[in-house]
Amino acid sequence: MQTIKLGKNGPEISVIGFGAWGISGRDWGKTDDSTSKKAIHSALDKGISFIDTADVYGFGHSERLIAEVLKERNSTQKPVIATKAGNNFYPFLEKSFDSTPANPDYSKKHLIFAAEQSLKRLNTESLDILQLHSPTTDLLEKDEPWEALEILKKTGKIKHVGWSVQSFKETEQAHILDRHSDLIDVIQVRYNLLEREAEKVLFPKALKYGTGVIVRIPLLFGLLSGKFSKNTLFSSTDHRQLNLSPEKLQNYLETLSKYDSFFEKHKHYSKAQLSLKFCISHPACHVVIPGIKTEKQAFENVVAGTISDIYFTDFFV
Ligand SMILES: NC(=O)c1ccc[n+]([C@@H]2O[C@H](COP(=O)([O-])OP(=O)(O)OC[C@H]3O[C@@H](n4cnc5c(N)ncnc54)[C@H](OP(=O)(O)O)[C@@H]3O)[C@@H](O)[C@H]2O)c1
User: Fold this and answer.
1) Is residue 76 very low, low, confident or very high in pLDDT (cuts 50, 70, 90)?
2) Which of 16, 26, 185, 208 is deepest in the core (most CB within 10 A)?
3) Domains, the chain, ranges and CATH?
4) Which atom in ligand 1 lies closest to the alpha carbon of residue 21?
5) Residue with CA at minimum distance from ligand 1 atom 35
6) Ligand 1 pocket: which residues have CB below 6 Å?
7) pLDDT of 317 strictly over 80
8) How many CA atoms does the CB half-sphere of 194 hold within 13 Å?
9) pTM above 0.85, yes or no
């Protein structure tokens, strides 16, 4: 597995990470915790040293599962864990939800409280990376979220400051990096073969400032593995019922068919592996964090971090 420094201020990590939303037990339908824990163990055994999660994933469940796995491993070699805050789920803790309700709160008070709760769940003294969880542009324009992150860094409660850029606002929000490039160590961006808006303005700025770039949704929720057809239907508790609705699926699959000859030419790798390698081949991108639910997916996805015979240079001209 190749490793890389996550931007000029970031830690050294594997180029393939573990996205831990899908194992949270919410938004993706029912999950089995023992299967999820095996997936995390396998990923770490195979050299993954970076995990992305959020406080709100399963209302703390994703963070707790990660902490349980690390306790079971009892190893001094710990992965770097990036978490997120800003969606205040605490008022809903006693209620039952299949999907995560939105309740944005980027106030200083809430962000500091949220970081302290994540520290407890992850059983650590200092969070490796804390990311603002995709705030809207008006919230990013306020000073409070940034002041909170500054305080958390100064007091040692977080090691690195991160900002998860809102999906489909990559260009609209790019100026935030100009304003806060001294504070932001890492950004997280939606980016994959079919969704490349970030290349226009955001990635050049990240390269200019030496910002670490984490790529999310690299498999377009599994679609880029090639396993879905236009007739695929998702359960009512799976967010893909909306995010990969029949109309969206049809459009994405039509665009994807342009790459048929590329996938055919390199068919010694799976479509998922090639799609992951595409993301980390962009010069601005450091790590890709596919959501991984099973050992099988862990085994398949880590291979993308060893591909050294495909460069994607034609894709970026
Ligand atoms: N706003 C934010 O900050 C934000 C938003 C979204 C995601 N994220 C982060 O980014 C991570 C990645 O995004 P994502 O999980 O939404 O989408 P993704 O990585 O594009 O897709 C993940 C899903 O694809 C399927 N899959 C994974 N590997 C596969 C393989 N080799 N072959 C076939 N199917 C495979 C799995 O679902 P099935 O097996 O059920 O098909 C998995 O849950 C998240 O886990 C989370 O950490 C952050």
Assistant:
1) confident
2) 16
3) 3-223+271-316 (3.20.20.100)
4) 45
5) 222
6) 19-22, 52, 84, 133-134, 164, 188, 216-222, 225, 227, 272, 289-293, 297, 300-301
7) no
8) 19
9) yes
- What is the CA(18)–ligand 1 centre distance, in A? 9
Nearest CA to ligand 1 atom 11: 19
The DSSP line for the chain is --EEE-TTTSPEEESB-EE-STTSSSSBS---HHHHHHHHHHHHHTT--EEE--TTTTTTHHHHHHHHHHHHHT-S-PPEEEEEE-B--GGGTTS--SSPPP-B---HHHHHHHHHHHHHHTT-SSEEEEEEE---HHHHTSSHHHHHHHHHHHTTSEEEEEEEPPTT-TTTTTHHHHHHTTT--EEEEE-BTTB-GGGTTHHHHHHHHT-EEEEE-TTTTTGGGT---TT----TTBTHHHHT-HHHHHHHHHHHGGGHHHHHHTTTS-HHHHHHHHHHHSTT--EE--B--SHHHHHHHHGGGG--S---GGGG-
**What residue's CA is closest to ligand 1, atom 4?**
216
Question: Given the CA of residue 270, which atom of ligand 1 is nearest to it?
Answer: 31
Amino acid (1-letter code) at residue 60: G
Q: Whose CA is nearest to atom 39 of ligand 1?
A: 293
> For residue range 228-241, what is the model confidence (pLDDT) as tens digits?
999 999 999 999 99
